[in-house]
């Protein structure tokens, strides 16, 4: 327990360091965005002034129809206005270059911190994998019982019992062995593997895997909250003396929170002579419920 506390503290410290490192980023980005808006306003104002000045110069030239050349047509005042408009256009170009530089700086700021966060989080992930803390937070461990989906055909997918050989966090895949034949090994994505717990709130896995398949472990929903099974619920359960899950209906839910047994009636399990469908007592661990 002390070791787990140390690992948790180390993880918390890494996350705190990341948060502290990026805490100034929103302020810096906002400052740059405000500056860009100010520059936009300046450019817009200058362009309006340039437009007005150039219109005045054009009118002055049109009115001087007898002028021999442009300088004579515009006069000293017109020439001065034209030079002022040209200078303002150059100022607009300079401000636009400044805006581009600020935008590029902002992109580098954000990209740099994203890269830093990615490296820190990757290092944290490696640390958690190396210490085993990551696996203990959700993935099934070697030797754990799991239900595996051999073929994804929707609600009628085939599920069988297997045991975990190893979990590969880097690829989010499991190596599992058939419970009937340990030499029959499968490599499956975690979406096709459901860790099985002993009962409500107990078991080697604290909650279902984050990527839930068609079925999830009874007594827990996708968020890890307890699921209360009721009479008449459609479920999948291991048929007695087999390692395969079949569709069934709950005939009698567990009696109290300490009970580990649920009674079900399997589909197509009626006695051919009497037509009666018997109740089957199934350990709660080996019952899955469809996710709606």
Q: What are the SSEs and their pairings?
A:
Blueprint (H helix, E strand, L loop, with lengths): L1 H21 L2 H39 L6 H62 L1 H4 L8 E7 L6 E11 L4 E6 L6 E5 L3 E3 L19 E3 L16 E5 L6 E8 L8 E6 L13 E4 L3 E4 L2
Antiparallel strand pairs: 1-2, 1-5, 2-3, 3-4, 6-11, 7-8, 7-11, 8-9, 9-10
Name the descriptors:
292 residues; alpha+beta; 6-stranded antiparallel sheet; 5-stranded antiparallel sheet; 11 strands; disordered N terminus
Report what the structure shows.
By secondary structure, the chain is α+β, with helices and mostly antiparallel strands. It is built from four helices and eleven strands. The chain has helices spanning 2-22, 25-63, 70-131, 133-136, and strands spanning 145-151, 158-168, 173-178, 185-189, 193-195, 215-217, 234-238, 245-252, 261-266, 280-283, 287-290. The strands form two sheets. The chain has a six-stranded antiparallel sheet, with no helix packed on it. A five-stranded antiparallel sheet has the order 4-3-2-1-5, with no helix packed on it. Helix 1 (2-22) packs antiparallel against helix 3 (70-131). The longest helix has 62 residues, at 70-131. The radius of gyration is 36 Å and the shape is elongated.
Number of strands: 11
User: What is the H/E string?
Assistant: HHHHEEEEEEEEEEE
Q: Estimate what percentage of residues fall within beta strands.
A: 15-25%
State the distance separating the first and last CA atoms: 37 Å
Rg from alpha-carbon coordinates: 36 Å
Overall geometry = elongated
Put simply, the count of helices is 4
Strand order of the largest sheet: 6-11-7-8-9-10
What characterizes the major β-sheet? 6 strands, antiparallel
């Amino acid at each position: 327990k002390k070791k787990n506390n140390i690992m948790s503290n180390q993880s918390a410290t890494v996350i705190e360091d990341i948060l502290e490192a990026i805490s100034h980023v929103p302020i810096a980005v906002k400052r740059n965005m405000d500056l860009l808006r100010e520059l936009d306003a300046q450019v817009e104002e200058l362009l309006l002034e340039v437009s007005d000045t150039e219109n005045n110069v054009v009118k002055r030239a049109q009115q001087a129809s007898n002028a021999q050349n442009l300088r004579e047509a515009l006069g000293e005042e017109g020439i001065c206005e034209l030079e002022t408009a040209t200078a303002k256009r150059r100022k607009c170009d300079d401000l636009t270059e400044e805006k581009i530089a600020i935008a590029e700086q902002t992109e580098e700021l954000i990209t740099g911190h994203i890269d830093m966060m990615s490296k820190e989080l990757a290092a944290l992930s490696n640390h958690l994998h190396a210490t085993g803390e990551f696996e203990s937070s959700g993935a099934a461990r070697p030797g754990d019982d799991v239900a595996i989906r051999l073929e994804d055909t929707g609600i009628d997918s085939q599920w069988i019992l297997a045991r975990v050989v190893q979990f590969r966090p880097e690829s989010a895949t499991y190596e599992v062995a058939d419970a009937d034949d340990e030499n029959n090994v499968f490599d499956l994505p975690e979406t096709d593997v459901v860790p099985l717990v002993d009962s409500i709130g107990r078991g080697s896995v604290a909650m279902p895997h984050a990527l839930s398949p068609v079925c999830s472990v009874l007594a827990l929903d996708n968020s890890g909250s307890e699921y209360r099974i009721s009479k008449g619920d459609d479920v999948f359960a291991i048929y007695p003396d087999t390692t395969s899950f079949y569709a069934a209906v709950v005939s009698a839910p567990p009696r109290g929170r300490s009970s580990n047994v649920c009674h079900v009636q399997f589909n197509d399990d009626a006695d051919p002579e009497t037509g009666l469908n018997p109740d089957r007592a199934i350990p709660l661990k080996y019952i899955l419920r469809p996710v709606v």
